[in-house]
Amino acid sequence: MWDDVAVLACPIYSWYCPTLMKSVLDRHYGLNKFYGSATGSLWSGNKAALFLTHGYDREYACTPFETGVKNLCVHSSLEYIGMYSAGDIDNKASMHTKKAVEGAKLFVRKIAGERPDISSI
Q: How many domains would you assign to the chain?
C-alpha cells in the first residue's frame, strides 16, 4: 500500500503468466474491499507496470495477460503505466541485445516519472 508503483515482471507462457504470478494476482483482492457493504481499494491511486519476456511477437504473446492486468487496474483504481517486453524469437540472447537493454532502461525512467521518448521501444 505504501508503494507508488507495483511492477509485475514475469515470462509469458501460453499467453499468460506462470502459476506464481497468477497466485499473486488472485490474492490482490485482499487490498480491495468489494464484499458485503464494504467498498473501495486500499491501493487506489497507485500505479502498475509490466516487464515481460515472451516468444512469438509482442502483441500476439502479451495481449491476453496485459488485458487481464488492465482489468485488474480498473477494478482496483490503479493507473496502468504500460508494458515493456523482450521477445525470445530466435534464442535467449535476443533478450539481451543493446536495444532490449536500452528499452528497459527507458521504461524504468518512465515508471520513475520521467518523460523519456519511448516511442521507439
A: 1
